[in-house]
Amino acid sequence: MTDGPPNTEASAGAQRSRTLSAITLLGFGSGLPVALSFSTLEAWCAVSGLSLKTIGAIKLVALAYVFKFLWAPLIDRYSLPVLGGRRGWMLWTQFGIVGALVLIAGLSPQTSLPAIALLAIVLATLSATQDIAVDAYRADQLLPQDRGLGAALGVGGYRIAMVVSGGFALILAGHYGFRHAYLAMAAFMAIGIVGTLIAPERRVAEESAHSLLKAYVEPLREFFARTQALQWLALILVYKLGNAFALSLSSTFLLRGAGYALSDVGWVNKVFGLAATVVGAFAGGLLLERWSLRRALWIFGVLQGLGALGFFAIALGWQGYPALVTAVAAENFTSGLGTGAFVALLMALCDKRFSATQYALFSALDSAARIFVGPIAGWIAADYGWIVYFAVSLACAVPGLLLLFALDGQFARLDAKSSTA
After folding, report:
1. Helices (H), 146-272
2. Three-state secondary-structure class, residue 264
3. Is the whole-model pTM more than 0.90?
4. If you average pLDDT over residues 262-281, what whole number do you get?
C-alpha cells in the first residue's frame, strides 16, 4: 500500500481549499469598512442636516486608500504579535476597525462632528492597512494556477460586503437608526476575523530587508531592475482605463442622458450590475485555471474594451428596459472578467519578499488612474455629448492592448518567475 502520495495530495488539496475559503472571507472583511467611511457616513451626515461643503470635506478620508503605499513597507518589514506575518497585521487592523465602528456608533454628526471625522480617518487608514496585508497574503499564498480563482473569490467577497455596508446598513439605519446600523456592521467584521483565523500561512520568502530604509528602497530597486519595468507600470495604469471611463458616469448617463427612472437605474445598474460583475469575476477565475495569464489578459482586455457598446447604442437611440439590462450586463460582466485577470497580473508581478509594498504601489497606481479619469469624463460628456463620451471610452481600451503586444515576450519569464517564487 502506498499511502504517502495520496495523503500528500489530500493535504495539499485541503490547504488549497482553506486558503481559497479564507480569501473569500478576507475579501468580505476588506470591503465592509469602505462604504462605512464614505457613502454610508455621507448619508448619515446628509440626514443630520450638515452642509454640502462639510459633507464634501469628509470625503477626503479617501486619501488613505491612495497613499497606503507610504506605510506598506512596514507590513513587509515587521511582524505583529499573536499570529505574526500577514495574519498578524490583518487581525490587529480588524480589531481596530471593530473598535472604530463601535466608537462612531456612540456619536452623532450633529454634536460630535470633529470626533466622527477623526474616527473616519482612523477607520479608513485601518481599512487601507488591512487591504495591504490581505493583498500581500493573496500574492504570497496563491499558486499561479489559483490566482484567477483566488482573485474572483476575493472580488466577490469584497463586492458583497459593499452591498451589506452600503445598502443593508442604510436599510437598518432607516428602521433603527445609524447607531444600531454601525454596531451591526461592527458585528459583521467577525466574518473577516474568521477568515484571518482559518487562513493557512506558509513561509514563502526569506526576510530580505534588515532595516526600515531597505524596506522602502529594495522593492523599488528590484522592480525597476526588471526588463521593460516602465511598460509594466503603464499597463497597470491603462489596462482597465476604458472600463473605468465608461462606468465613471454610467448612472448619470442613464438618468439624465437616457431618461431612465431612478428606481430602474437603482435596481439594474447597482444591484443587477453588481451581480453581473461578480459572475464575470468568477467566470474569469475559472477560465484562468485553464488559460495562461497572457491569453486571459488579451481576451478579457478585448471583451472589456467592447463592454461599453451597449451604452454607446443607448446613446445612439436604443431605448427600453431590455436595452438598459443588456448594456449594464455587458459592461459589468466584462468588467468582472477584466478585474479577475488584472488582479492575477498584479499578484504575478509581486516579488514575494516585497509583496505588501509592491502590490500597494501597483493598486495605488490603478486607483489614481480611476480618480483622475472622473473630471476628464465629465468634461467630455458636458462639452461633446454622450455619443462622443462612449466613443472615447471604447478608444481608451486600445492603449492597454498595445502594451500587451509590446510586453508579449515577457510573459514566459513572468510565468517562470511566478512558478519558482
Report:
1. 147-163, 169-176, 178-188, 190-198, 212-224, 229-238, 241-248, 250-252, 262-265
2. helix
3. no
4. 83
